[in-house]
Specification:
It is a single chain. The chain is an alpha/beta fold. The chain is built from 21 helices and 19 strands. The strands form 6 sheets. An 8-stranded parallel barrel has the order 5-6-9-10-14-15-17-18, surrounded by 7 helices. A 3-stranded antiparallel β-sheet has the order 11-13-12, covered by helices on one side. α3 crosses α19 and α11 runs parallel beside α13.
């Protein structure tokens, strides 16, 4: 099994000179020769240095680990049945996949209804999120799901107004919230605002709760892509100085005369803005939750990353003790921003292992009569079979699946295809579907019927997200129908089976030939 690709990747726009002869443990060409221009990561690092830490091209892509983890969701199989039904009458007229109910709820005292069990975790100040926000926000809104505004949005906003080190206005934050609210499906979904260390210092929680009408907020401990604070690239020295003045870490120092001169000459072409890491304490966490509720938050979420098991235990226990409404657990390997590439590949607990630990912890608390929040699993989920397996792996505690790269991909493709339709410049493999929005987009006619003249206002990226979600909805309904589960609440851990002994040992899911073993032999023995 190839676990890792060293020293070359499309993510860093690097490759080996001798691709057919590479040292497996170092990633270097078997023969590294003088005279090579340096196409590999080592070679490019010789002239561009720290720029090679991050995936490229910056601002127009997302990235995910290339590491082949020992266990992933393909190592489980979904179990179907030939009899029975849960949630509908057990007859062939009612037990059809179009009768599957995919709605779910998240929250304790003030629950949010979702049309589909999908939550988009924090997409914050990265350029790829900002460039595609309208499509993503509107698409999630009209799908009746939850979308999270990630960290550092107010701090990165060039038009933000800050007085006495506190945010008083951020047009970017306001427009992101408005984009969702203007199209929000009645009674479904919500827009969530997430905070990190710098956001809290700037007073972002108070600003969005008291001035912008936000009702749901999320404390962030981390994410699956990295175990440091968030980072973005800055193209101008003015922006770099602005971010430094706001309290962020900026590299290289834009006020250093040597750096200024190097930037002027073109040796330095961009700056890095970094966030600080948080310092979690039980008392501090409880106080933060209390303060957010006092500010008016109806729901408080927590997102944690792929840290070591003791930190996951803290997240689960603190979320339980403080009656957090939703806990998102994000496995290692993916990212929508500028996470360091090697870190993305080489740190943290992978998704299946992290989800399995989460299940053990929350199941123990539940059996002790303790409160368990709605759990969301995230970390590389993209299609309906993975959604089903994630829900089953964490049943009955997992209420939704977190997905960011998939919806963002759909938003980007929708935007691109919509633009090509408007320009009359469709490639042949798309033009075969037609030349209009209604012809090319599967959901086009349905959305035009729903929104009438307002259809013209729909961002093409939003149509892309909605159409992608409709595929996920039908695919998930079909899988659930085959398992004879006609509502999400009926999905259980025995709806999946492990295909390897290692997957069974890690997850606690039975090996495939041991599923139903006792019941099957009872039938055989009569």
């Amino acid at each position: 099994m190839t676990m890792t690709k060293y020293n070359r990747s499309a993510a860093t726009l690097s490759k080996n000179r001798t691709p057919d002869s590479v040292s497996p443990f170092s990633g270097m060409c078997a023969t590294c020769v003088e005279g090579c221009i340096g196409m590999c990561e080592i070679g490019k690092s010789a002239y561009r240095g720290p720029e090679l830490i991050y995936p490229q091209p910056f601002g127009i892509m997302t990235a995910a680990s290339e590491k082949d983890y020992p266990i992933d969701f393909s190592h489980f199989s979904i179990m179907g049945s030939a009899c029975g039904a849960y949630g509908v009458p057990a007859d062939s007229e009612h037990a059809v996949f179009t009768n599957v109910n995919l709605e779910t709820t998240i929250g304790d005292k003030n629950p949010i209804k979702l049309k589909l069990p999908i939550v988009v975790p924090g997409l914050g100040s990265t350029f790829v999120a900002k460039r595609n926000w309208d499509g993503l926000a509107v698409g999630v809104a009209i799908s009746g799901c939850v979308l999270t505004i990630g960290e550092n949005v107010c701090g990165m906003d060039d038009e933000s107004e800050i007085k006495r080190n506190r945010i008083v206005r951020s047009p970017d934050m306001e427009s992101r919230i408005k984009a969702f609210r203007d199209w929000q499906l009645d009674g479904y979904g919500d827009i969530v605002v997430q905070f990190n260390v710098e956001d809290t210092k700037l007073g972002v929680p108070e600003y969005v709760l008291t001035k912008l009408g936000v009702q749901t907020v999320e404390l962030k401990w981390g994410q699956g892509a990295k175990d440091i604070g968030g980072e973005v690239k800055l193209k101008t020295i003015e922006k770099a100085r602005s971010m430094k003045k706001k309290g962020y870490i900026v590299l290289p120092d834009p006020d250093d005369p040597q750096v200024v001169e190097t930037f002027r000459l073109g040796g330095i072409k961009e700056f890095e803005r970094h966030s600080r890491i948080g310092m979690v304490t039980e008392e501090g966490f409880a106080q933060s939750v209390k303060e957010l509720r006092e500010m008016g938050a109806k729901r408080v979420f927590l997102k944690t990353g792929a840290y070591r098991p003791v930190d996951l235990a803290r997240a689960v226990k603190y979320a339980s003790d403080n009656r957090i409404d939703m806990l998102t657990v994000d496995g290692a390997g993916g990212g929508t921003g500028m996470s360091p590439w090697r870190m993305m590949n080489e740190w943290g607990i992978p998704t299946v292992e992290l989800c399995s630990l989460t299940y053990q912890y929350v199941d123990y608390l539940a059996k002790q009569g303790k409160y368990v929040p709605a759990i969301v699993f995230a970390g590389g989920f993209t299609l309906e079979d993975q959604i089903f397996k994630g829900l089953a792996l964490g049943a009955p505690y997992v209420k939704a699946i977190g997905m960011a790269r998939g919806p963002l991909c759909a938003a980007m493709v929708g935007k691109t295809v919509g633009g090509r339709i408007q320009a009359g410049d469709l490639p042949v493999y798309i033009e075969r579907y037609g030349n209009t929005m209604e012809e090319v987009f599967y959901s086009g006619v349905m959305l035009r019927e729903r929104y009438g003249k307002d259809f013209e206002k729909l961002h093409p990226g939003a149509i892309g997200v909605y159409t992608y979600y409709q595929r996920l909805a039908q695919g998930l309904a079909q899988l659930m129908c085959g398992a004879r589960k006609f509502a999400l609440e009926y999905i259980t851990r025995d709806d999946i089976a492990a295909l390897t002994r290692e997957a069974a040992e890690v997850s606690g899911i039975p090996y495939i030939t041991e599923v139903d073993k006792e019941e099957a032999w009872k039938i055989i023995k009569g």
